[in-house]
Amino acid sequence: MTAPEPDGQPQAGGQSPADGQSPADGQSPADGQSAAGSADAMAAEGALLRVEHVAKRFGAVTALSDINLHVNRGEVLGLLGDNGAGKSTLLKILCGFQPPDTGRILLDGQEVHLKSVDHARSLGIDVVYQDLALIDELTVYHNMFLKREKVIWPLLNNRAMRKIARERLDAIGIGLKSVDVPVARLSGGQRQAIAVARAVYSDAKVLLLDEPLAAMGAKEAALILDLIRDLKERGDLSIIIVAHNYGQAIEICDRINLLQHGEITFNKMSKDTSVQELNDIVIEEYRRALLERQKSA
Fold first, then answer.
1. Which entry of 112, 189, 255, 278 is 20 to 30 Å from 163 by CA?
2. How many CB atoms lie within 10 A of CB 173?
3. Stretch 188-204: mean pLDDT, rounded?
4. Taking a C-beta distance cutoff of 8 angstroms, is the pair 97, 7 a contact?
């Protein structure tokens, strides 16, 4: 998913609220009820962000058919799924870039109609895209204040932005020698950390991370995982992480959702699942798809 230009249309009309999650393929009904029960116990405390019956079609293609999910205040939710499962489409809806065809989004218990990326950000929903939306030629502190610049009209207040950027990066444990270097000279992990820090200090309530560990080595991934842990300890920021690595997701997330064929088919606390269980579900889906293909051949 690449960073879109801030744009969007008003959200389509909603449907009646519900918060059920269907049990994952391959689970028995009892297993599904157990998983839903543990997750619903957290939801009962009051979800900060709730998505109800959201669907999205592109012509004849159904990207999302019936999405129901929630994330609580201070919770880290892992959103897993194969390529083409609809993860990027869901993130684009949550950040205001695309409207859903049906369904509704609630923030702090109030239904919101996200009109654009800027509108979502103003409500406290911010996103860090896979391509980070950084400008290589600009310095660290200029990227930290991209589209949020401080000015002493008609000039940029570089001194203030430099000082604040230094303080904010230090506060969340990102140790850079200088904020005056172009971001092109930084490692992938440092660049990702800057994009996350920029979103965190935009007064975000909900932070959406699109594949934050993609194409990173172990050392760089460790930097981002530590940053997410630090943000989680603050307790006031909800995070939804789109990920492919099941092991990393279980390690850092409080709860796991699996997105398959446009629906959330799995909803469990991380401590109650395993990489093996998630692999088994996905492999079973592949087997079913192969059988269907063979039958139609």
1. 189
2. 14
3. 85
4. yes
3-state DSSP assignment of residue 158: helix
Quick check: 112 and 192 in contact, CB under 8 A? no
Tens of pLDDT, residues 128-167: 887 768 899 999 999 999 888 899 988 999 999 999 999 9
Q: Which residues pair with 57 in a beta bridge?
A: 62
Contact 133, 195 (CB under 8 A): yes
**Do 25 and 254 form a contact (C-beta atoms < 8 A)?**
no
pTM across the whole model: 0.79
Chain centroid to Cα 86, Å, comes to 13
Q: Which CATH class is domain 7-124+206-297?
A: alpha beta
233 Cβ contact list (under 8 Å, min separation 6): none
Q: Would you list the domain boundaries of the chain?
A: 7-124+206-297, 133-203
Among 104, 96, 72, 100, smallest CA distance to 86 is for 100
Measure CA 273 to chain center.
Answer: 20
- Give the 3-state secondary structure of residue 155: strand
Alpha-carbon dihedral 274, 33, 28, 21, rounded to 10 degrees: -80
Residue 30 has pLDDT above 50, yes or no: no
Would the pLDDT of 214 be above 80? Answer: no
